[in-house]
Specification:
This protein is α+β, with helices and mostly antiparallel strands. It is 39% helix and 20% strand. It has a 4-stranded antiparallel beta sheet. Helix 3 packs across helix 4. The longest helix is centred in the last third of the chain and has 11 residues. The structure holds adenosine-3',5'-cyclic-monophosphate. Adenosine-3',5'-cyclic-monophosphate binds next to helix 4. This is Nucleoside diphosphate kinase. It comes from Albidovulum litorale. Belongs to the NDK family. It catalyses: a ribonucleoside 5'-diphosphate + ATP = a ribonucleoside 5'-triphosphate + ADP; a 2'-deoxyribonucleoside 5'-diphosphate + ATP = a 2'-deoxyribonucleoside 5'-triphosphate + ADP.
């Protein structure tokens, strides 16, 4: 199995409810290592740039406002098949469709306020990690 890295974001609905530790425990219990992590407050411009791929979607404005509404925790998770494993641990985007035991099933409030983001493929993982972290900040 390939060791991979993926970008994870603990979103404002979760930081507001003090859920960072509980969410990190889910990652660590699944064998994912948190090899970089910082708590930051995104500007509307930064949120817009990060989610540029969704620019034409009807929920884009709402999504950017939400992501800039309170601090987020951005992190790099490392492990065997980390991208797929993280998506498994997060559960479906819409918490109504998420499996029991997943982060979104347990903590998400709605499809928009869904507690976590995770990269969906190796190319996007590399881009998203570079968006928030320099090489010097990544210590495996
Ligand atoms: P995320 O994995 O961060 O990637 C894009 C985000 O857009 C997604 O999680 C959801 O939080 C959000 N999103 C997707 N669909 C909707 C929707 N119908 N309404 C509001 N937000 C949405």
């Amino acid at each position: 199995m390939a060791t991979e890295r993926t970008l994870s974001i603990i979103k404002p609905d979760a930081t507001n409810r003090n859920l960072t530790g509980k969410i990190n425990a889910k990652f660590e219990d699944a064998g994912l290592r948190i090899v970089a992590q910082k708590r930051i407050k995104l500007s509307m411009e930064q949120a817009g740039k990060f989610y540029e791929v969704h620019k034409e979607r009807p929920f884009y404005g709402e999504l950017c406002e939400f992501m800039a509404s309170a601090p987020v925790v951005v992190q790099v998770l490392e492990g065997d098949n980390a991208i797929a494993k993280n998506r498994e641990v997060m559960g479906a985007t819409n918490p109504a469709n998420a499996e029991p035991g997943t982060i979104r099933k347990e903590f998400a409030l709605s499809v928009g306020e869904n507690s976590v983001h995770g990269s969906d493929a190796p190319e996007t993982a590399a881009q998203e990690i570079a968006f928030f972290f320099s090489g010097l900040e990544l210590v495996g």
